[in-house]
Amino acid sequence: MKAIPTSPYMQFSREQWAALRDSEPMTLTYEELLTLQGIDDKLSIDEVEDIYLPLSRLLSYYVNARTSRQSVLMKFLKQEAQKIPFIIGIAGSVSVGKSTTARVLQALLSRWKENTRVSLVTTDGFLYPNAVLEEKGMMLKKGFPQSYDIKCLLKFVTDIKSGKKELKVPRYSHLIYDVIPDVYEEINQPDILILEGLNVLQSGMDYPNEKPRVFVSDYVDFSIYVDADEQQLEDWYVSRFMKLREGAFTNPRSYFRHYAELSEEDALKTSKTIWREINRKNLRKNILPTRGRASLVLHKGEGHAVDYVTLRK
C-alpha cells in the first residue's frame, strides 16, 4: 500500500489488496459466477477472491459503523430505530463492467448473515422514454446527464433514505432499448441498496438545463468507480457489440436488429463510430470527471481483471 502524493487516496496493488481478504469466506460457486458475469466480462474465482472478498469485508465495516451511528442518533432522540438502507453507488463508463461488479457484490453481501436483503437498482430505469428523448432531440445523447429524469431518481433515493416502504422503480429493457411502460420493480426496505449507473456520482454542474439542489451522491454511503484506460474501454465496447450482433441483436424484437444484418466490416466500423461519437464523448465530459468523488476505484486491465485499487483515506 502506498499513499499517492497530493492525493486523498491510498493505492493498493492487486496482491496487496488480495491480502486484505483475511478470513472472509468464499460463498459463491463457479456455476453461480457464470450467471453473474457479463457478455464480454469473464469472471474468475481468483477475481472474486482477490478483489471482491476484501471489498465485501471492507463494506461490512462501513455498514456496521453506519448502523451503530444510526442507533446512537435514535437513542439520543429517544426514538425507535428506523430501518434505513445503506446505499452503495457504482459508477463508470459504458463497457467497463459496472453491472458485473454490482451483481457480484449483491450476491456476496446477501450472504453475510441470515436474512440480509440486498436490492440492486440500475439508473437505466430513470432514463426518459425514447418518445420523450426523440421529442427533445436527445436520442444521440442517451446516457448523458440530461437524458435522465433526475427529479424521479432523486425522489427515489430520498424516499429510500427516509425509510419509506414499497417503492416502485421503472424497469428498463436493453432488448427494446427503452423504459417498459407501466412495469415496475418493487423495492421494500432492503438492508443494502446497490445503485448502479453512469450518473451515480454526477453533480448539479452536469445537468445544464435544470440543476438539482441535492445530488444522488448526497445519499450514497459508499461509492465505487470502475475504471479502465480509454483504449481498453473502446476495445471492450467493440468486442461486446460484435458479440451482441450475433446474439441479442438477432432477436426480431431487438431495437438494434438492423445491426445484425451488417457485414462484419460494416459492423466493426459502426461500433467504433458509436463509441467515438457518443460513448467516448460522454465518458470524457460527464463520467470520468466524477471518478475523484468515489470512495474506492477499481482499475481494470487486460481481461477485465482489476490490477490495482485506490481507496479514499
List keywords for this structure.
alpha/beta; globular; two-stranded antiparallel sheet; 313 residues; 8 helices; single chain
What does this structure look like?
Helices cover about 40% and strands about 20% of the residues. It contains eight helices and ten strands. The strands form two sheets. Strands 1-2-10-9-8-3-7-4 form an eight-stranded mixed beta sheet. A hairpin with a 5-residue loop joins strand 1 and strand 2 (about 10-15). The N and C termini lie close together (about 10 Å).
Strand-helix topology:
Elements: E1 2-3, E2 9-13, H1 14-19, H2 30-36, H3 45-77, E3 86-92, H4 98-109, E4 118-122, H5 130-136, H6 150-161, E5 167-173, E6 178-187, E7 192-196, E8 222-228, H7 230-246, H8 264-287, E9 296-300, E10 306-312
Parallel strand pairs: 3-7, 3-8, 4-7, 8-9
Antiparallel strand pairs: 1-2, 2-10, 5-6, 9-10
Helix pairs in contact: 3-4, 7-8
Order of helices and strands: EEHHHEHEHHEEEEHHEE
Order of strands in the sheet with the most strands?
A: 1-2-10-9-8-3-7-4
Low-confidence stretches: none
Shape: globular
Quick structural summary:
With 313 residues, the chain is an alpha/beta fold.
